[in-house]
Specification:
By secondary structure, the protein is α+β, with helices and mostly antiparallel strands. Helix content is 33%, strand content 27%. The chain contains 10 helices and 17 strands. Helix 3 packs across helix 10, helix 4 crosses helix 10 and helix 5 crosses helix 6.
């Protein structure tokens, strides 16, 4: 017998191995998923999953992977990897004044997706905040609700601006408490200003003072100082200059700006020069712009004026879309509000009607919508919240406890939207 000839025993082993390989590949072929038809894929993409108890965000921009909120979810899914923070601008009235609700939403987002700092903060505090400590000297605040000395062409993106005396300063210090775990320290500090009369600006941080700007310009200027810190003081020399806000934030993760202003309907945003919006958009890109107004609009005597309110607010939306075309825009409904009838506090019907009007407004503009009014109703309305210490006895405004209570369902809605976005992306790439 030749040396290279296989013995019967070896032949049997090879035959058995060959059979096993054939069976394995046949099994794999049987487990392959059949290709989905276009109709089946479209149905899978359309059927978002919503856990019980979550009030979902309704997205009125049609499409499978290019919905309105997808612009935000795409950034959010890479929040820890981007070379800048995912930025959210939350606009509202006194309901979110003092960073109520937004401080807790920021906390939840930063815990989940990273980030630090309280975001935008006025140089002259309008409210007391738990998310940062503020103080200033030689600065005067001007906002659109006090019209005697207000100049529309000088205002910033929040209907506010600050003017300086010959020598001025503003200090922001981080805090850490039950409402804010991630705002005590940050790594990037910004200042936005317009040195129309010539200014010299310094920044004192970690015991070191450095000059960050000196000159004159009618263009928006941005100063940025990097380095981990828990306190920053801006020094200003030069009277008649215009300052907007500072921002404390991380290199990535999440930053959420609170732009709450008392006694506004939201239509005041139309008074901001379009050029100002676009100047800010160039240096402060937003991935999500939240618009929540209505407490100063809702009235049983003003139902006909809702039409005027919508027409004017449509213009607000168009102007912000032009300035930040890549940002998702989310309309959050008016919150609940109550009045007393024969000594008994009851939710105002006109508030519910306004919420429905805002939903239709979001739909007609192909935006996203979240129904805060219904969320509050499921929790006993503003009356029930007031009885639990979550709202003030004016049955209009939240306490800090109430802000925390409402931030959680909003966070859950955003998280649910992100999960459905990631599921749709997976389906489209299979």
């Amino acid at each position: 017998m030749q040396k290279n000839m296989l013995r019967p025993k070896h032949t049997l082993i090879i035959l058995i191995a060959s059979c096993l390989w054939v069976m394995l590949f046949a099994s794999c072929d049987e487990k392959k998923q059949p290709e989905r038809t276009e109709a089946e894929l479209k149905e899978l993409l359309a059927n978002d999953s919503v856990p019980e108890g979550v009030m979902p965000i309704v997205d009125f921009l049609p499409g499978d992977t290019n919905r309105m909120m997808d612009r935000f979810y795409k950034a959010l899914s890479h929040a820890k990897e981007m070379n800048r923070p995912v930025r959210i601008a939350y606009y509202g009235d006194s309901f979110i004044g003092g960073d109520i609700l937004t401080q807790d939403l920021r906390e939840l987002l930063q815990k989940e997706f990273g980030g630090s700092g309280c975001g935008a903060a006025e140089l002259v505090p309008l409210y007391s905040r738990l998310s940062c400590s503020q103080s200033s000297k030689g600065l005067t605040s001007h906002n659109i609700t006090v019209k005697s000395d207000f100049k529309n062409d000088l205002q910033g993106i929040d209907n506010i601006y600050t003017t300086s005396e010959a020598t001025a300063s503003a200090k922001l210090t981080g805090v850490k408490n039950n409402y804010s775990s991630f705002v005590g320290k940050w790594t990037k500090t910004y200042l936005y200003f317009r040195p129309i009369a010539s200014a010299t600006v310094t920044c004192t941080m970690n015991g070191e003072t450095k000059e960050v700007y000196s000159g004159k310009s009618d263009k928006l200027q941005t100063a940025c100082v990097e380095g981990e810190t828990s306190s920053v003081e801006w020094g200003i020399k030069g009277s008649g200059n215009v300052f907007y806000f500072a921002s404390n934030e991380g290199k990535n993760g999440i930053v959420l700006d609170n732009f709450g202003l008392v006694a506004v309907s939201g239509n005041q945003l139309n008074k901001i020069p379009q050029s100002t919006l676009e100047e800010f958009a160039a240096v402060r890109p937003y991935d999500l712009i939240i618009l929540q107004y209505g407490l100063n609009v809702a009235s049983p005597k003003e139902l006909d004026n809702y039409k005027y309110y919508v027409r004017s607010f449509n213009d607000v939306i168009k102007r912000y879309q032009k300035a930040w075309p890549e940002a998702a825009i989310l309309v959050v409904s008016v919150s609940d509000r109550a009045t007393k009838d024969n000594g008994v506090a009851k939710s105002m019907k006109c508030v519910q009607e306004l919420s429905q009007v805002q939903r239709k407004m979001a739909e007609s503009n192909k935006l996203a919508f979240w129904d805060m009014y219904s969320v509050m109703q499921k929790n006993g309305g503003v009356v029930g919240m007031a009885n639990r210490g979550e709202a003030e006895k004016d049955y209009t405004h939240l306490t800090h406890k109430g802000g925390k209570a409402l931030a959680k369902p909003m966070f859950d809605a955003l998280k649910n939207g992100l999960e459905n976005y990631e599921r749709r992306v997976r389906l489209m790439t299979e």
